[in-house]
């Protein structure tokens, strides 16, 4: 069982998970104690969040092997929602 | 129809041809996703209508929260400072880890690893339970300190958004129980395999919605 599990985990998906953990810790730090201007910190936190969402979709939901239209709808969602939220925040 | 044809191909691999292929080796096949001759829709296409519908509803909720936040930045910042970010951060790490367990579990189900697959799904369920316990502790702490949904707009949105998300997580845990049952079966039909993939995608949706909620509710200033 250990051998099978090790084999299953030796994949890019595990590297993506590690990257997502690191990105969470970085944005946690930026949102808690940062030297950045509040607007810039918020924009960075939101961009990092939606990049994480994109990776969850492409690798965990396996959209990288899905038809282009399905992957495009998902990635379009990430891009549009992230942009709208940042514009709403900065325009206020 | 493309999705159905794709799944048939996957089933063909899981039905035994994989063991008869001399090259690449078994280890090489397991190290990367199973080769698919054409694009494959994970789960049934209908599952994606539901997932995108849910994501769209949450996108509207994210926008409404941001609208009111920009109208009352100072009260929202003051209220947000009452949150313990550790609760949200730990829950993010738990859901990301549960997602890794689910995607590994689904791959193990496809490869017919009947010991690894249920163990991975069970690990994801443990992470889900830990999330709910953590969320319960956070809510209790807030309520004990007088921060209720009626206290101000921030806490109203905080409890509504995290409450709706927790409801989705509860449904997701029911889905994971079904995946656990499937993971112990000797063989899976095409429909059952589609349900496994679709169920996994639903869990990942619960994960990605929380990623945005963590940023919006706990981190932005």
SS elements, strand count of chain A: 0
What's the helix count of chain B?
Answer: 8
- Number of domains as seen in the coordinates of chain B: 2
Number of helices of chain A: 4
Q: Which stretches of chain A are poorly predicted, pLDDT < 50 over at least 5 residues?
A: none
Q: Class by helix and strand content of chain B?
A: mainly alpha
CATH topology of the largest domain in chain B: Four Helix Bundle (Hemerythrin (Met), subunit A)
Radius of gyration of chain B from CA coordinates: 20 Å
User: Which outline of chain A best applies?
Assistant: flat
Mean pLDDT of chain B, as a whole number?
87
Using DSSP, what is the number of strands of chain B? Answer: 0
Order of H and E elements of chain B: HHHHHHHH
What labels describe this entry?
heterodimer; A: 92 residues; mainly alpha; 4 helices; 83% helix; 0% strand; flat; B: 221 residues; Four Helix Bundle (Hemerythrin (Met), subunit A); 2 domains; disordered N terminus
Can you characterise this structure?
The complex is a heterodimer of chains A (92) and B (221). In chain A, helix 2 packs antiparallel against helix 3 and helix 3 packs antiparallel against helix 4 (68-91). Chain A has one domain (2-91). With 92 residues, chain A is mainly α. Chain A has helices at 2-9, 12-32, 38-60, 68-91. Chain B contains eight helices and no strands. In chain B, helix 5 packs antiparallel against helix 6 (116-144), helix 6 runs antiparallel to helix 7 and helix 7 runs antiparallel to helix 8. Chain B is elongated and about 55 Å long. Chain B has helices at 2-20, 26-31, 45-71, 73-80, 85-110, 116-144, 153-183, 190-219. With 221 residues, chain B is mainly α. In chain B, 41% of the residues are buried. Chains A and B meet through helix 1, helix 2, helix 3 and helix 4 of A and helix 2, helix 3, helix 5, helix 6 and helix 8 of B.
């Amino acid at each position: 069982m250990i051998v099978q599990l090790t084999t299953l985990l030796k994949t890019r998906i595990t590297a993506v998970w590690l990257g997502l953990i690191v990105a969470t810790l970085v944005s946690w730090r930026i949102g808690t104690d940062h030297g950045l201007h509040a607007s810039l910190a918020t924009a960075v936190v939101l961009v990092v969040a939606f990049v994480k969402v994109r990776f969850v979709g492409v690798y965990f939901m396996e959209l990288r092997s899905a038809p282009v239209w399905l992957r495009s709808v998902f990635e379009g969602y990430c891009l549009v929602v992230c942009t709208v939220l940042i514009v709403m925040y900065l325009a206020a | 129809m493309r999705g159905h044809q794709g799944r048939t191909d996957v089933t063909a691999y899981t039905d035994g041809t994989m063991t008869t292929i001399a090259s690449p080796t078994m280890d090489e096949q397991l190290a990367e996703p199973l080769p698919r001759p054409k694009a494959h829709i994970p789960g049934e296409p209908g599952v994606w209508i539901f997932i995108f519908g849910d994501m769209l509803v949450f996108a509207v909720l994210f926008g409404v929260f941001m609208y009111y936040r920009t109208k009352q930045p100072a009260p929202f910042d003051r209220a947000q400072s009452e949150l313990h970010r550790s609760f949200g951060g730990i829950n993010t790490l738990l859901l990301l880890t549960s997602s890794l367990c689910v995607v590994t579990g689904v791959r193990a189900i496809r490869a017919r690893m009947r010991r690894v697959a249920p163990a991975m799904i069970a690990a994801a369920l443990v992470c889900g339970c830990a999330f709910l316990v953590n969320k319960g502790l956070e809510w209790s702490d807030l309520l004990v300190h007088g921060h209720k949904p009626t206290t101000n707009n921030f806490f109203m949105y905080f409890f509504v958004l995290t409450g709706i998300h927790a409801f989705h997580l509860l449904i997701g845990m029911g889905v994971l129980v079904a995946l656990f049952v499937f993971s112990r079966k000797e063989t899976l039909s095409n429909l059952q395999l589609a349900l496994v993939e679709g169920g996994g995608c639903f869990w990942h949706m619960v994960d990605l919605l929380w990623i945005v909620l963590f940023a919006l509710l706990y981190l932005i200033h």
